[in-house]
Amino acid sequence: METLLEILSDLHPDVDFETEDRLIDDKILDSFDIISIISEVADQFDVTISAEYIVPENFNSAEALYDLIQKLEDED
User: Could you tell me the CA-to-CA distances from 34 to 66, 76 in Å, in that order?
Assistant: First the structure.
């Protein structure tokens, strides 16, 4: 989770990703951020986030994104 928080904080240092749970709904993250996150997650965690998983529920919070990463790691 710490690595993920670092990735997110690099994008938006002004956001508290440990508590924020409406990153998409409140338009904190935009489509370019999502692309950057997907790329960084692929590099750092060696998982691929396919199109079916690119939904607001998976990107609204760091916790939701981390849960997705763990799920994808378990599938490998």
Answer: 14, 22
